[in-house]
Amino acid sequence: MRGFRHWQWHLDEMYVKLNGEMVYLWRAVDHEGEILESYVTKTRDKKAALTFMKKALKRHGSPEAITTDGLRSHGAAMNELGNRDKQEIGRWANNRVENSHLPFRRRERAMLRFGQMRSLQKFASVHANFHNYFALERHLVDRQTYKERRSAAVAEWRSLAS
């Protein structure tokens, strides 16, 4: 994927309740909607954004463009990394990552919130991997192909779980 011409990331942070106090879950999503990275912090400042971006860049390489919301922490971290020219900010440009929060919120409600920072971080990273694996983009393929891919994913899941 690093050779893909239009490799683009969408970065965002969301509030998550942890024992009654709000913490931040930073997320990076690629242009296809796959969750690349998840990182939990207590703050929403430049240091947290910088740590998250360094982690994502080290693991996934450098994208062509990085779309963010208007949070100043993103811009300050980008300045320090030297990626400010790759940053794109737009009113609805970051909908890709905003929509990726929805399955996480649904699962969070089912689990009745979280108790520890470590368990939240572990859940966020594992949830991202499974969501990427089972989100097969039904609208892009025909029914037969979708059913084959879904069956393969479920079979592999069953073999891993047993």
TrEMBL record:
Coiled coil start-end: none
Molecular-function GO term, any one: DNA binding
Swiss-Prot/TrEMBL GO biological process terms: DNA recombination; transposition
Keywords, sorted A to Z: DNA recombination, DNA-binding, Transposition
Signal peptide coordinates: none
A Pfam family recorded for this sequence: DDE_Tnp_IS240
Domain DDE residue range list: 7-133
DNA-binding among keywords: yes
Xref: PANTHER family: BLL1675 PROTEIN
Protein function: Involved in the transposition of the insertion sequence.
Protein name (database record): Integrase
The species this protein was found in: Sphingobium ummariense RL-3
